[in-house]
Specification:
The complex is a heterotrimer of chains A (about 290), B (about 375) and C (about 240). Chain B has about 375 residues and is mainly alpha-helical. Chain B has 18 helices and four strands. The N terminus of chain B is likely disordered. The chains are: A mainly alpha (about 290), B mainly alpha (about 375), C alpha/beta (about 240). At the A-B interface, helix 4, helix 9 and helix 11 of A face helix 6, helix 13 and helix 17 of B.
Amino acid sequence: MTVFLQSLLSGILVGGVYALIGIGLTIIFGVMRVINFAHGDLLMLGMYVTWGLFTLFGIDPYLSLLVTAPVLFLWGALLQKVFINRVLNALPQNQILLTIGLGLVMSNGVMLGFTSDYRILTTTYSSSSFQLFGLSVSQPLLYSFLVTVAITAALFWFLQTTDTGQAIRATAQDRDAAQLMGINVKRMSVLAFGLGTALAGTAGALLAPTYYIFPQVGGPFTLKAFVVVVLGGMGSIVGATLGGILIGVTESLSAVYVASGLKELVVYVLFLLILLFRPSGLLGKSRT
Amino acid sequence: MRALLPTLRAPRGFSAPAFLAYLAVIALVALVPQLSRKPLILHMWIMVFLAIAQGSAWNVVGGYAGQYSVGHAAYFGMGAYITMLLLELHQVAPWYGIAVAVAGSVLLSVIIGSITFRLRGPYFVLASIAMAEIIRLAALHFKDLTRGAEGILLSSIPPLETRWFTVRFLGKVPFFYATLGLAVIVISVNWLVQHTKLGYTFQAIREDQDAAHSLGINPTLHKNLALMISAAFTASAGGLFALYVRFVDPNIAFGIDVSVQMVLICIIGGIGTILGPVVGSVVLVLLSETLRNPKWLVQAGLLGDESPTVAFIEGRLSNAHVLFYGVLVVLVVLFAPDGFLGLLRTAVARVKRRLAARRSPPGQPAGAA
Amino acid sequence: MPAILEIKHVSKHFGGLAANSDVSFDVGLGEIVGLIGPNGAGKTTLFNCITGYYPPTKGDVLFKGSRINGLQPDAVCRLGMVRTWQKVRPLAKMSVIDNVMVGALARTHSLQVARRVAHEKLEVVRLDHKAAFLAGGLPIGERKKLEVARALATRPEMLLLDEVMGGLNQAESEEIILLILELKKLGLTQVVIEHDMKAIMRLSDRLVVLNSGEKLAEGPPREVATNKDVITAYLGEAVDA
């Protein structure tokens, strides 16, 4: 029983970070209808920025978020203005190819600059854990989870109450109607992509203390982000949150009860099942 | 503007001069090993032929039928693994091994098709990626079957003994001809597809599946057919590749870069055409091999032994080819969606129009926009 | 007049929405039936059900005496019924002639024969001079004509036209009207969805009116046009007929 609970708990904690990645992707899709295949590589950039700040200046990864998130936001906004904007009305295949290309440039650019050596970011608490009701809770994972909860709450507040947030939601619901109501949809796209990138980068920063950091680390995260988003429903933030946790738990339990080497395989099989039998996900809007 | 440009497709039908030119090119290329035995040069050609085979194979389902699978590594890897497993573990000669590998991959494509073709657009793309990943992870995990991450190392290839001659697989020349043969076959298949009813059917499905359905076309049947054809040749390329490099492991076989590269070859060259994958292959292989083994330039006599360019590439850029792929893709998608070939054709069409305008008086044909 | 198409109590539900409710009417061989009704009345849904795009929830569709509900659209096409689309659907990156050839290839395996048929049909709609042009670059009027030519190339016995005159100017609409009348002379049975009232009155042997998924009226054009319920449906309750 303890094994089950332990595994469940780690799953939830990791799931929080998956949720963050998924939320970023779903915002991008919701507002721009763009399938961003470079999402995992944006996460990778967040990891490297965090690692850089830690290695050069000794800044704790959770503190450096205050730098990492805005930097990634600006990077995302730049990508959108220069590249993504040109394919907003193109065939989905071309959007996919463009983002794949951008992802390749980012991951291989980093590889050229930093080599493929695995980097690690070890803080004083990287391998510490708490004891909670007889279960061991990894300290960094717990901090990540708490930060994720805080960010998600802040995001909800932003989207529900602020004017800009509501404008983003309006654009996601109906781009044309939003434009007719005077919302600058171009600006919304820039904001959405910037926000999505910042969230991905933040997820990377949160994972940095516990994961190996290397240029190609983004790939599997992109696919997992899509699983999260499809499970939760494309365009639904609540869905992405639930989806993230569910995927985290599935992965964790599969590692214990199926086989450690197959935990990702189980997630992808689940993905196919969802695509086949419930493509709109748990809470999704249908694609127009 | 586009209404004025006559269709850029070549006239449909067998064109004798084009066919003769094609045969001449093949004959010339076949002479290469007789002129030069330099290993790096032959290696380049082999990689180009393999890339043409993979790109052209993908083109059938991705270019003509419009189904953008980014998980074709599933078939490439299946071809590689079955061939290697049969040869190394069971001493089955590779010419039989590849045949079995092709059959296995076609079967796999039917399974994958039945799952993924229910999905459209980006969902289809995602499902194809997921399928290849599932197979890769399975290959990594089930070590008893596949030797897992350790991979399979080939000890030797038996000689091919026929009544008239014996081929020993030593050195690169046999592989030069084997891969050339495969490339020619796959290009011919592409030509057949484009110039028969099948080509029209596939392209109609690509352009508008529902409209095609209402015009008497069964999309499910044809999408699966396209995939089966594509899988068969992708697997052949996988098998030959594994035999040539004498090693296979789950990442080499099923990695997503394998899948992405196949798509890139077609996008960069010109999707949905016969020459597109050829152009794309030449560009991509030249780029990657030059960056990986710049010494081929020396062997080809293009640069001196002590050339600073060679040193620079070896020192700084040795694995940068994927970076350049990424840049190329971005440029192509943004500025040349029909690939290099499309750029060429637009340029030719523009020249033709200017010549025609000079010959006839101004007074545009009906429909001038 | 023998009925080539029999629609018997067809209903189509999408979740809770009844897009078609118990619609029944026949189409006689060689007739032109005009299918009219306000927006959202369920006309295109009916076309989709008839041609197999999705099956009706209830009811039967008989074509030339046999049940076709449940058949796939390609089978329906081979039986001799073809439709055009409300939002025109050219095969954009293929040439005009190739577009029509796709239709012709429903009946032959030979590219040569298909090309000949395609040129024929393009001449019928007066688009043959643009045979080599890319379909996606044509203006809307010509795209509609292309779609008709493509449908004709499948050698149908029955043609369903969904707002083929939508977005066309006077001259283009007139061309289409004359084409439809000419096709009738050649023996083609047609059902035409149209909003252009003058056109539909000229073309139709009979009118069928749908409203909110139900059949409201059926009969000769003059009769239906003066039907109180029909007028109310189009103009709203406030009008006194």
